[in-house]
Design goal:
Layout: H1 10-21, H2 24-28, H3 30-36, H4 40-68, H5 72-79, H6 84-115, H7 124-132, H8 146-162, H9 167-193, H10 198-206, H11 216-229, H12 236-242, H13 251-283, H14 287-290, H15 294-307, H16 313-347, H17 351-366, H18 374-417, H19 424-451, H20 459-482
Helix pairs in contact: 1-9, 1-12, 1-13, 1-16, 4-5, 4-11, 4-12, 4-13, 4-18, 4-19, 5-6, 6-8, 6-16, 6-17, 6-18, 6-20, 7-15, 8-16, 8-17, 9-13, 9-16, 10-13, 12-16, 13-15, 16-17, 18-19, 18-20
The protein binds phenylalanine.
Phenylalanine binds next to helix 1, helix 2, helix 6, helix 11 and helix 16.
């Protein structure tokens, strides 16, 4: 029998998990969510969410992966044969995400090159629309965007090469993909906070509004951010921990990884809000009028800021998009490795075959997104997979492991290995707090979607890109489960 891949050191594993957790979300999502939900006061909700749900779930995933030595599909299969489909579903949510995550990376590639000439000019919104050929509606397909496709191809080549020999390769690549963005974030913090207007920006980011903590929406935002940010619920942490040697710490690793991720988010806010303060200063507007989030922040607002930096604009432009690319790539390949590990566990295929086929399928699925309407579909799929996908998977984990399998077994298992132990509080969070919060999240999201379609898109587009994707994943999971596994 083939020996299972193993991390070359504990540090490689920690870096890989940090690399997965730290992604675009730390830069383009966290600072905005923090500002919009009470600034400094939000940090309280966020830390509570981290300790009552994020870290407990990460410990659960690590414990499960390590104990069963299987990727999500295999891990759930080993817990109970009937649960295998659920493991596949977790993997498939991740797979769906990486299909469009790679498209965003392609945008970053393109923008990295455009930075050299500051090609976006004055009207950065118009330029973005032109670059991706944006159409008015999801059903107006628009033209094929060659450069977006080429960027996508490049992303996939990088992703597949990074996991070429499984975690052996990953363990080396992450030195670059974790440390480069960290250094660049520091560069952008310094650049951001030394610009005129930065203080107003930072005040905006962190001014505490404690009254907001009375609003349940703020707490839900904190939990959602924590789940997404820690990369739990996609089978990644299960797969990654399944490659740890038998004697490995679990609990301390989970704390180190989560805290590093959160520190990065918090600090990234200084880079972003410093720059937004400058942007407001340039336009002579209040910061509130210029804040942006997600793709708009990175491809519309930030390019404008870059063009108006006092010196070295192309240099900072290239570094900014390099930062995003290096941030994104280790999240992307962690998702692919979670899929590949699941396939290898079940069918005993080689790294090469799995990596090439998973990469090719994901690339092919991404091609429609390189057309003009692609961005709109990406938006819909993203909303459904990150809201419903993650919550459903994390809820399922709490139920299947916390209640059916027994959280006590995982707790005792990780305690027997770890540098410090977790107490019964952990079971309480996994069995009660986390699932209750997740149920709330799911119900509220369903309610919102019943009231109005996501982003005002036509219901039919919302159905095809959203509900259908969410419904189809467990079905594919059941199909994959029913396929014969290869025993040797
Ligand atoms: N955690 C990553 C972020 O904050 C996003 C991510 C999602 C990574 C899913 C992997 C899987 O951006």
């Amino acid at each position: 029998m083939e020996v299972r891949d193993q991390w070359s050191s504990r540090f490689s594993f920690i870096l890989a998990a940090i690399g997965s957790a730290i992604g675009l979300g730390n830069i383009w999502r966290f600072p905005y969510i923090c500002y919009a939900n009470g600034g400094g006061a939000f940090l309280i909700a966020w830390l509570v969410a981290l300790f009552t749900a994020g870290i407990p779930l990460m410990i659960l995933e690590f414990g499960l992966g390590h104990r069963t030595q299987g990727a999500a599909s295999d891990a759930f299969y080993k817990v109970n044969k009937k649960f295998e489909w659920f493991g596949w579903m977790a993997i498939l949510v991740g797979f769906g995400i990486v299909v469009y995550y790679a498209v965003i990376m392609s945008y970053c590639f393109n923008y990295g090159i455009h930075s050299l000439t500051l090609a976006w000019g004055e009207n950065t919104q118009e330029f973005f629309n032109k670059t991706i050929g944006l159409t008015q509606s999801p059903f107006e397909i628009g033209g094929f965007k060659k450069f977006i496709f080429l960027g996508l191809l490049a992303s996939w080549i990088f992703i597949v090469l990074s996991i070429w020999k499984g975690v052996k390769t990953v363990g080396k690549v992450v030195y670059a993909t974790v440390f480069i963005p960290w250094i660049l974030i520091i560069v952008f913090i310094i650049r951001g906070v030394t610009l005129p207007g930065a203080v107003e920006g930072l005040t905006f980011y962190l001014k505490p509004e404690f009254a907001k903590l009375l609003n349940p929406g703020v707490w839900l935002a904190a939990y959602t951010q924590v789940f997404f940010s820690l990369s739990v619920g996609f089978g990644i942490m299960i797969a990654y921990s399944s490659f740890l040697p038998r004697k490995s710490d679990i609990v301390n690793n989970a704390f180190i990884i989560s805290m590093s991720n959160c520190a990065t988010s918090f600090l990234a806010g200084f880079a972003i809000f410093g720059a937004l303060g400058y942007h407001a200063h340039l336009l002579g507007k209040p910061v509130a009028d210029v804040v942006a989030v997600g793709p708009e922040l990175t491809f519309v607002t930030y390019p404008h800021i870059i063009s108006n930096l006092p010196f070295w604009q192309p240099f900072f432009g290239v570094l900014f998009f390099l930062m995003l690319l290096t941030l994104g790539i280790d999240s992307a390949f962690s998702l692919v490795e979670a899929v590949a590990a699941g396939v290898r566990d079940k069918w005993k295929l080689s790294h090469r075959t799995t990596n090439l086929s998973v990469g090719a399928i994901a690339l092919a699925l991404g091609i429609p997104l390189t057309f003009g309407a692609g961005f709109l579909w990406l938006d819909i799929v993203d909303n459904f997979l990150t809201k419903f996908g993650i919550s459903i998977i994390c809820l399922g984990e709490c139920i299947l492991i916390g209640w059916v399998f027994g959280s006590g077994k995982i707790r005792e298992y990780v305690n027997s290995l770890s540098e410090f132990s977790i107490g019964k509080w952990w079971d309480f969070f996994i069995r009660f707090i986390t699932p209750i919060v997740l149920l709330f999240l799911i119900i509220l999201e369903i309610k919102d979607r019943v009231i109005s379609s996501y982003g005002g898109f036509p219901r039919i587009a919302e159905f095809l890109g959203g509900w259908l994707v969410v419904i189809i994943l467990p079905i594919i999971g059941i199909i994959l489960m029913s396929l014969r596994r290869r025993e040797k």
